[in-house]
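Friendly challenge for the regulars: who can give me the structure tokens for this chain first? No prize, just bragging rights.
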Amino acid sequence: AQSTLVKRFDVKKFKSLLETKSVGRSIKYVDITTSTMDEADKFLKDGCNSGAVVLADSQTDGRGRNQRPWLSSSGENLYVSFILRTNTIREVVSLNFAAPLAIALAAEGTGGVKGSRIKWPNDVWVGRRKMAGVLLNTVAQAGPSGAKISVNLGIGINVNQDMDEVKQSLCENGGNVATSIYMENGRKPIEREVLLADLCKRLEGLMSMEWNDLMDKYKNYDMLLGKEIVVMPNKKEDPSTYYYAKAIEYSADGYLVVEPAKDSKRVTLSAEEVSIRPEPIEKEKD
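First reply, four minutes later:
Bragging rights claimed.
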């Protein structure tokens, strides 16, 4: 067990490392909560400034997309929610791309992880293992500065957890298991305060970028474009609806455009689930 890695998050140290104008400047820390997104909802209603962050050392009800459980051990990983105020849907769309990119860059820069890739719309993988996830909720609520849209951006990053000890898979696909920065950087513990300060800085920088520049940077870490994938409509409820497709591009409104294998007419995906097909498409076997 990696008991030496488990320690309480040092808020004072984090603040001393912060190099941002707004992101992370206001922080609410709790030892344990149901979910940082629940805490952030309360913080948001209190009228906190844009860039405020809620952080917990442990979650009892961490979740991802479609209410999937997120296993949240204590004192090893990062469980945070950012409250961000925006004025346009385009800014919200940009956040969908900026958040996982910021994670990949911080994992690489501070964490020493090589090969991080983003699986649209909200996962960061290394190889065929999930290292981090993003969940973004919007509320049509005016902020203190007059912004029209409030965003609750939840992020979970497996940092110092020894995933060999984790029996439950956190990934979407049953055959895959989760990974962590610690597992991918040669088992070198990472100070979570340093990682979060880096994440805040990168997120703030990416949020200020023009769309085309952001997407150019994002595509360097994307794991879908040009690849054969399996599209799972209807939240995986009906396997008969699955189909093979090639990921072509991302539209200006943040959707994934694919070309189905059996029909060259392109399809734009929004709410559909997308699962990576790890091997090249072969002729289907009986």
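The longest helix spans residues 89-109. The mean pLDDT is 86. Your move, everyone else.
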